[in-house]
Amino acid sequence: MINIVLPVDFSDATTKLLESAVKFAKETNGKIFLIHVAASDIGFAIGDMGFQYFPEVEENEMKHELTELNNLEKKVLEHGVQCEHLMKQGVSGDIILDYASEKNADYIVMGSHGRSNMYDVFVGSLTKELTRKSQIPVLVIPIHD
After folding, report:
1. What is the pLDDT of residues 22-75, one digit of tens each?
2. What is the protein's major site of localization (predicted)?
């Protein structure tokens, strides 16, 4: 059995990535480890009084994201593929690589939108970062909008 780490962000690309990872897992007798890295600054706002923190906003968003992650796990299980999930807050690249190492991952499955290098300069690309840093093979699935 191979271990496949699948980072998800609940964007439009998530459905295609999930389908591809499930297909890959079925072909290789794999197990999928879903991971979602939640933003660490969800409850912060800047206003006239400076920075303010609203814990209820962060708590509600975290509950919503955990529900989404649970739903994705159910979809994987419905296809007869073993699955676990984890949600953490922090630096995405580091957390994903640590999780992949912890789970003895054979592959990390990521998506690529094929955007320009200029996009990467200003926004960054988690897929690009992981393909550079990872000791574990990164399977990149093209995602076309």
Report:
1. 999 999 999 999 999 987 765 445 556 566 555 566 677 788 999 999 999 999
2. cytoplasm
* Amino acid letter, 96: I
Contact criterion met (CB below 8 Å) for 127 and 12: no
How far apart CA 120 and CA 114 sit, in angstroms, is: 10
What is the Cα–Cα distance from 112 to 13, expressed in whole angstroms? Answer: 9
Which domains are delineated in the chain?
Answer: 2-142 (3.40.50.620)
**Cβ neighbours for 81, distance < 8 A, ≥ 6 positions apart:** 22, 25, 26, 30, 31, 32
Rounded (10°) CA dihedral 73, 74, 76, 80? 130
pTM recorded for the entire structure = 0.83
- pLDDT (0 to 100) of residue 75: 97
